[in-house]
């Protein structure tokens, strides 16, 4: 009996090593096999539950994935990976309301997590709530989390809402982080056009066309030049 107990106590360590290796190699079926054993030993381990959810997700079983991810969050509300993956599954299923709710829950645990702010803003934008998306991006900026992607998407959302001046401000901030991003420059040109500053827009489009002659900005440059803009 003592030998059996000792053997059982050695299983988790061996399983953990194999799980990590198999996950790194994307061998989710093999990882799942060991995780089932680990769950028997540690039924209330949040990491085990998260990894079970990850494996089921990768293997196409969304129902079981959601079950284990929800359990992981019950055990550890600060499991951001579980929140993000569960929100992602909701998005894939077209349940943007649940994805948004899940991401908001995660932000209560980690209010300064940039990835969560980005996911919330993008989910709001996809759901059609552009004002909500702008507010989420602005909140990230207020917290000092603004990067090129945040400012770019903030500017894009403001453009779509008709706030050309606000879009220009955000896009210029994005360019401070990534000066030659052609998509950001294109959107800046659009914002300038919307403010009647066509000559400035032409200069921006030329800047893109020199490096990326097939980019939409180069096409817009040709359109304006052919029309006498």
Q: What do you see in this structure?
A:
The chain is mainly α. It contains 13 helices and no strands. Helix 1 runs antiparallel to helix 2 and helix 3 runs parallel beside helix 5 (80-92). The longest helix is centred in the N-terminal third of the chain and has 23 residues, at 2-24. It is elongated and about 75 Å long.
Overview in brief:
This protein is mainly alpha-helical and 229 residues long.
Give short descriptive properties of this protein.
13 helices; 229 residues; 79% helix; disordered N terminus; mainly alpha
Order of helices and strands: HHHHHHHHHHHHH
Number of strands: 0
Mean pLDDT: 91
Structural class: mainly alpha
Major sheet description:
none
What best-fitting shape do the alpha-carbon axes yield?
elongated
Total helical elements: 13
Distance between the termini: 88 Å
The percentage of residues in β strands lies in under 5%
| Low-confidence region ranges | 1-11
SSE map:
Blueprint: H1 2-24, H2 28-41, H3 46-58, H4 62-75, H5 80-92, H6 96-109, H7 114-126, H8 130-142, H9 148-160, H10 164-177, H11 182-194, H12 198-211, H13 216-226
Helix pairs in contact: 1-2, 2-3, 3-4, 3-5, 4-5, 5-6, 6-7, 7-8, 8-9, 9-10, 9-11, 10-11, 11-12, 12-13
């Amino acid at each position: 009996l003592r030998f059996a107990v000792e053997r059982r106590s050695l299983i988790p360590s061996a399983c953990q090593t194999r799980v990590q290796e198999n996950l790194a190699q994307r061998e989710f079926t093999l990882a799942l096999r060991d995780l089932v054993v680990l769950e028997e030993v540690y039924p209330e381990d949040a990491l085990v539950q998260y990894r079970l959810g990850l494996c089921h997700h990768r293997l196409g079983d969304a129902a079981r994935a959601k079950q284990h991810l929800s359990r992981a969050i019950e055990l550890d509300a600060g499991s951001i990976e579980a929140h993000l993956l569960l929100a992602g599954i909701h998005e894939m299923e077209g349940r943007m309301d649940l994805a948004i709710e899940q991401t908001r829950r995660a932000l209560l645990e980690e209010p300064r997590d940039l990835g969560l702010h980005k996911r919330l803003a993008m989910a709001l934008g996809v759901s059609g709530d552009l004002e909500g998306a702008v507010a989420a991006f602005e909140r990230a900026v207020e917290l000092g989390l603004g990067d090129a992607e945040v400012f770019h998407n903030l500017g894009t959302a403001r453009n779509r809402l008709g706030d050309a001046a606000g879009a220009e401000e955000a896009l210029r901030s994005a360019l401070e982080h990534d000066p030659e991003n052609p998509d950001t420059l294109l959107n800046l040109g659009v914002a300038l056009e919307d403010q009647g500053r066509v000559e400035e827009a032409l200069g921006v489009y030329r800047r893109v066309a020199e490096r990326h002659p097939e980019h939409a900005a180069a096409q817009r440059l040709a359109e304006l030049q052919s029309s006498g803009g």
